Amino acid sequence: MLDWDGTVTERDTLSLVMQRFGDVALWRRTGREMGRSLTHDEAIAISFRTVRAPLEEVVGWLLGEVRLRPGFAELVARHRPLVLSSGFHELIQPVLARARLDVQLVANRVQPRPEGWRIVFRGGGVCDHCGEACKRAWLPPGDVVYVGDGYSDRCAALSARRVFARDALADELGARGVRHERFDDLRDVAAALAAAEPWPDA
Ligand SMILES: [Mg+2]
Ligand SMILES: [Zn+2]
Q1: Which ligand does the CA of 135 lie closest to?
Q2: The whole model's pTM is what?
């Protein structure tokens, strides 16, 4: 199970799009309110209402900016992970297609309206643990390995058997005393998972 923005991608693509096409001050303000006066979904919905560019223009620009973390293709080939994102199919699929990667994806969708982009949330209901419509509802049953970096990963990471974390997620789990492994790029994750397998290729 992999988060997309800031986990598979080196930089958060929602942040990149907001910096180029939206009200970035509003993005930062609503980001600080996540878990306080706003849920994660409310914060991104408010921010993306200030993006008015056509989808094709945003995707074209994003394809020139986005970089995938080394090791992603290897993880996909070996483990067929699910990518679970608070971003949008419309911004993720073109990046996967260009990398020629066929990946199972759960994400929100966006209606790129000229008066402001409108997010269509993936649903899943409000979580009993965190009180938001979080990613936990989308985890498959059984033992989950979770790889993430940010606020939207917190609750799902707490329910995983094994967690690889960086940035804000690593800091948050560290502060709570939750066991996790820090990663730098996805080759680290692939190597750690390979080391844990007693019979490679079995
Ligand atoms: Mg992220
Ligand atoms: Zn939750």
Answers
A1: 2
A2: 0.94
